[in-house]
């Protein structure tokens, strides 16, 4: 559960900006395309060391964005199509690499790639001098979350400006591309770390759904960030408990709960505006 | 090698089924994909592919079997709900399309994984096959599946043939179609249903994640080759089918190789290949065009220099003189002169070059275009005289005979350019 | 003094030139209009001046310097439709962006910054709305938010893209009054404008644009029948034919190499 909260918080902070920049689907693409990076790192290092995986992921994250741009520029492919072509290609490469190396030392299988399972990360405990320090995935995700939080807090102005009005930011002489790549780089790093816990598809749910719910009910950027963290917490806790009770997949349940929270928030908002209207009418 | 023969002789019934299956899938996806691409809704295929997953699980639970018809019905229902919900989010909230897509995609997929876990726990014997929908397993296509695919492909093709014109209109511009009195809502419904069905079929070969490639990549590739709708579908279908067959072959020849990912890799391979070699839009043909242009520009510049030199009374023209008049890379100048001689525009006596009669006509044409354009710029476009030369330098190579005629008419057959030089006819 | 100089400026999208060898100079301390028909390249010109598009040839100088050296003194007011007004930001938030600086992005705004921002909001008469979310403003108010942001930047020259679109007559007058005050303080205001009717009342100086500069100078001199029919008359079919050939055949707009004559 702690793993889910950490991943979720990191995702929702980054996801908020993806939503505001209208590049959620690029985030989706990246979360799929980092697969070959992970597999390569596994093959070369023959273990699940965090650093090579992060490097592999970052490389493929950037590669994906470049490939998308190449398709758009060199052949006038629409953005959506360019995204679709790119991430399916990289994902397919990843799956093929897995198939090629099964029987070798690679202990990831296709199921894990698609679903992930937070519960299984619990088994991978790390002990220092005999004391239990935490599970491995918690130990890797915690520093990333810290970086994400620092990035959001200190980069708030830059993120706000470049997300709201790119041209104006450029006119002020700000390097918009650098901000863009920094954000996408963090997304790919987070996506990779979430891979084994939640799988490629559901990472996107963590990225999108809580911030989307938050965006529905606030008009203030910092409130939106706070609220999306709250929504993440609610879904992580609720989802885990429900999943344990029903004995089903945790990550799937968390995303389902997050989705249902979104629907509830949305209908709540509709009811609120309706009743306000009625109040106004009755006043008249 | 044995594999190759064995595979492509299609004597093995399993191979036949798989190949036929992937080809049918490719055909369905390509037809539908062309429309989603033209309607700029490429990623909708991705959304649908994920969204039908819980539908398949429910279809399984309700029917208690892996009967493709029930699963298909479940899939269609789920796909439909998903798309309606997605459109509602875009229309009713401030969330934009991409967020709505990602929301639907992951929410439904999340629900699906929960259902799947539930089904697996209940331990029904037939459930093992459900996984194939996620990762795709073309090798498991059965005869019965094949029959279903066949019927669906036929239906899709029939629909496209019947409504070809309307679909075209709607893909091009919905508002315009509506203004002509078409029931746009109905046709949109039809197209969406076709998408959902095609996805439900294709997903069995390549799985949830890679499904969108089947829709998008062939259509985008075909778009590089042609502008015509019917050709688009045909070309997309061919690329799709070829990739499917190759993918099936790889997984047949190599142990433990999945078909779906190879299918997608071949699709992307064809896309990249097309980016390079497609006529007109391809990188190579653009490079070639550039080279042709550069050669043309060089030739015409040399001819023009001849004319200019002669205009100033030069009689014995050699390379030295040409280079004094205008800067060329000497090697390029030699090559260009050689080519011009070959074309019969220039003749050579010892070191001295001169224009042939045809060469003279051509040289006059270039100089004429240059001066006409200078005149046009000053007279019609208010440019100052010190600016026009550079612009005309490039324009003299671009102006076609047709534009020349327009120019002459518009400027009323002038005799002098803005620098008071004679315009040669 | 010259506030802006464009020299031999050619700008192309995808090799097709939309501004063709443009040359002009603008004075300081004036309200200057850039006018021309739809698609004549007004927005393109503004974006090129702001360094958002790289020209195919030529250059732009602001206050006789490269843009990068005088960025602080140059403010850009983009077309209103160019941003997503659903963005979770208040009037205050947006105007504060005018105080963001390249090298102080990671620092907090100072007290002085805050005062300047409050001042700018006051000047455009939006103080009552300063905490409102920007989607809940009228078109004219949104436009004023953008102007306030430019004011907060403390610039000497302002480039505005169609600030009067979607604005009612009273707001239009109010904005114009504000611009007039700014001019009287010595600022230069360059405005892309659409409405020919109001041109002579609004601007001291005009640039008449249609793919090339048709005329540039004091308003009265530029607004002649001949110039207008040159700009708005439909005699550029030739030009558009040529543009399509360039696109199709990938011809270079500017020949490389040097020619002697
Ligand atoms: N991103 C782009 N890619 C390709 N062509 C473009 C692009 N932006 C503009 N154009 C083309 O460049 C030309 C000039 O466009 P621009 O937006 O500068 O015109 P404008 O004068 O501002 O028009 P309007 O009055 O409609 O705002 C138009 O023909 C337009 O089609
Ligand atoms: Mg414009």
Automatic annotation (TrEMBL), chain B:
GO terms for biological process: response to zinc ion; transmembrane transport. Residues 356-424 form the Iron dependent repressor metal binding and dimerisation domain. Pfam families: ABC-3, Fe_dep_repr_C. InterPro entries: ABC_BtuC-like, ABC_TroCD, Fe_dep_repressor, Fe_dep_repressor_sf, Iron_dep_repressor, WH-like_DNA-bd_sf, WH_DNA-bd_sf. One of its GO terms (cellular component) is ATP-binding cassette (ABC) transporter complex. It comes from the Bacteria. Keywords: Cell membrane, Membrane, Transmembrane, Transmembrane helix, Transport. One of its GO terms (molecular function) is transition metal ion binding. It is found in: Cell membrane. Its main location: membrane. Gene3D superfamilies: ABC transporter involved in vitamin B12 uptake, BtuC, Winged helix-like DNA-binding domain superfamily/Winged helix DNA-binding domain. It is a multi-pass membrane protein. The chain crosses the membrane at residues 20-38, 43-63, 69-90, 102-121, 141-164, 232-254, 260-278. Belongs to the ABC-3 integral membrane protein family. This is Manganese/zinc/iron transport system permease protein. It comes from Lishizhenia tianjinensis.
TrEMBL record, chain C:
It comes from the Bacteria. The keyword Transport applies. GO terms for molecular function: ATP binding; ATP hydrolysis activity. The keyword Transferase does not apply. InterPro entries: AAA+_ATPase (IPR003593), ABC_transporter-like_ATP-bd (IPR003439), ABC_transporter-like_CS (IPR017871), Metal_Ion_Import_ABC (IPR050153), P-loop_NTPase (IPR027417). Keywords: ATP-binding, Nucleotide-binding, Transport. SUPFAM superfamilies: P-loop containing nucleoside triphosphate hydrolases. CDD domains: ABC_Metallic_Cations (cd03235). Residues 4-236 form the ABC transporter domain. Transmembrane segments: none annotated. Belongs to the ABC transporter superfamily. This is Manganese/zinc/iron transport system ATP-binding protein.
């Amino acid at each position: 559960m702690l793993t889910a909260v950490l991943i979720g918080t990191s995702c929702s902070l980054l996801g908020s900006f993806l939503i505001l920049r209208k590049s959620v689907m690029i985030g989706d693409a990246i979360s799929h395309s980092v697969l070959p990076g992970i597999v390569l790192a596994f093959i070369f290092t023959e273990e699940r060391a965090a650093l090579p995986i992060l490097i592999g992921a970052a490389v493929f994250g950037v590669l994906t964005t470049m490939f998308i741009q190449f398709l758009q520029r060199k052949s006038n492919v629409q953005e959506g199509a360019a995204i679709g072509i790119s991430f399916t290609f990289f994902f397919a490469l990843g799956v093929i690499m897995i198939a090629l190396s099964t029987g070798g030392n690679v202990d990831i299988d296709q199921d894990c790639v698609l679903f992930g399972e937070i519960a299984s990360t619990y088994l991978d405990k790390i002990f220092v001098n005999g004391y239990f320090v935490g599970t491995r995935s918690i130990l890797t995700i915690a520093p990333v979350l810290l970086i994400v939080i620092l990035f959001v807090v200190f980069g708030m102005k830059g993120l706000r400006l470049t997300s709201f009005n790119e041209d104006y930011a450029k006119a002020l002489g700000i390097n918009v591309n650098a901000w863009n790549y920094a954000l996408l780089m963090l997304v790919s790093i987070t996506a990779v770390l979430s891979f084994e816990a939640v799988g490629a598809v559901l990472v996107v749910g963590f990225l999108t759904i809580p911030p989307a719910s938050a965006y529905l009910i606030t008009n203030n950027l910092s409130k939106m960030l706070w609220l999306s963290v709250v929504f993440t917490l609610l879904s992580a806790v609720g989802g885990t408990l429900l999943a344990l009770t029903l004995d089903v997949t945790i990550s799937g349940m968390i995303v389902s709960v997050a989705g249902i929270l979104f629907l509830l928030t949305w209908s709540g908002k509709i009811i609120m505006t309706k009743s306000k209207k009625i109040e106004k009418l009755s006043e008249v | 090698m044995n594999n190759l023969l064995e595979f492509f002789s299609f004597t093995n019934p399993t191979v036949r089924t798989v190949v036929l299956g992937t080809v049918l899938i490719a055909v369905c996806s390509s037809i539908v994909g062309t429309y989603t691409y033209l309607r700029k809704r490429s990623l909708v295929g991705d959304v649908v592919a994920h969204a039908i997953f819980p539908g398949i699980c429910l279809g399984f639970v309700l029917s208690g079997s892996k009967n493709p018809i029930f699963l298909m019905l479940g899939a269609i229902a789920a796909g439909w709900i998903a798309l309606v919900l997605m459109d509602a989010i875009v229309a009713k909230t401030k969330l934009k399309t991409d967020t709505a897509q990602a929301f639907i995609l992951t929410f439904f997929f999340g629900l699906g994984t929960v259902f799947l876990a539930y089904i697996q726990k209940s331990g029904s014997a037939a459930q093992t096959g459900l996984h194939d929908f996620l990762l795709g397993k073309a090798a498991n296509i059965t005869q019965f599946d094949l029959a279903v695919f066949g019927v669906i492909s036929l239906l899709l093709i029939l629909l496209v043939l019947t409504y070809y014109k309307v679909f075209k209109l709607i893909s091009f511009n919905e508002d315009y179609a509506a203004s002509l009195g078409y029931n746009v809502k109905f046709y949109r419904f039809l197209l969406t249903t076709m998408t959902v069905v095609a996805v439900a079929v294709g997903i069995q070969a390549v799985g949830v994640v890679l499904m969108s490639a089947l829709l998008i990549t062939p259509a985008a590739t075909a778009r590089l080759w042609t502008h015509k709708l019917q050709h688009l579908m045909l070309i997309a279908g061919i690329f799709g089918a070829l990739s499917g067959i190759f993918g099936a072959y790889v997984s047949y020849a190599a142990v433990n190789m999945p078909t779906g990912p190879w299918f997608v890799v071949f699709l992307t391979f064809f896309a990249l290949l097309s980016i390079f070699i497609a006529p007109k839009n391809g990188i190579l043909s653009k490079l070639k065009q550039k080279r042709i242009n550069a050669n043309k520009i060089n030739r015409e510049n040399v001819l023009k220099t001849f004319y200019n030199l002669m205009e100033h009374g030069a009689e014995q023209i050699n390379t030295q003189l040409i280079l004094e008049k205008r800067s060329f890379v000497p090697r390029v100048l030699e090559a260009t002169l050689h080519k011009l001689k070959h074309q019969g525009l220039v003749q050579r006596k010892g070191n001295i070059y001169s224009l042939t009669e045809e060469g003279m006509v051509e040289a006059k044409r270039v100089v004429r275009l240059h001066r006409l354009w200078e005149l046009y710029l000053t007279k019609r476009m208010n440019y100052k005289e010190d600016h026009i030369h550079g612009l005309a330098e490039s324009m003299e190579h671009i102006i076609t005979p047709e534009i020349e005629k327009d120019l002459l008419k518009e400027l009323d057959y002038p005799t002098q350019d803005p620098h008071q030089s004679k315009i040669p006819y | 003094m010259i506030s802006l100089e464009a020299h031999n400026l050619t700008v192309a999208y995808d090799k097709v030139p939309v501004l063709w060898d443009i040359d002009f100079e603008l004075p300081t301390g004036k309200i200057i209009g850039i006018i021309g028909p739809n698609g004549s390249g007004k927005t393109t010109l503004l974006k090129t001046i702001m360094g958002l598009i790289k020209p195919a040839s030529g250059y732009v100088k602001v206050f006789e310097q490269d843009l990068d050296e005088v960025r602080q003194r140059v403010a850009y007011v983009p077309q209103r439709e160019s941003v997503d007004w659903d963005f979770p930001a208040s009037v205050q938030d947006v105007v504060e962006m005018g105080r963001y600086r390249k090298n102080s992005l990671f620092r907090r705004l100072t007290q002085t910054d805050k005062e300047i921002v409050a001042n700018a909001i006051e000047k455009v008469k939006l103080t009552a709305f300063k905490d409102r979310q920007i989607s809940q403003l009228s078109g004219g108010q949104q436009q004023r938010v953008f102007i306030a942001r430019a004011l907060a930047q403390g610039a000497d020259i302002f480039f505005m893209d169609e600030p009067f679109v979607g604005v009612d007559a009273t707001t239009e007058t109010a904005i114009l009054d504000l611009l007039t005050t700014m001019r009287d303080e010595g600022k230069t205001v360059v405005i892309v404008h659409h409405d020919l009717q109001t041109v002579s009342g609004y601007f001291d100086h005009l640039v008449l644009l249609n793919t090339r500069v048709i005329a540039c100078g004091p308003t009265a001199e530029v607004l002649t029948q001949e110039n207008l029919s040159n700009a708005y008359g439909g005699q550029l079919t030739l030009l558009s034919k040529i543009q399509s050939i360039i696109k199709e055949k990938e011809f270079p707009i500017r020949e490389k190499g040097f020619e002697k004559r």
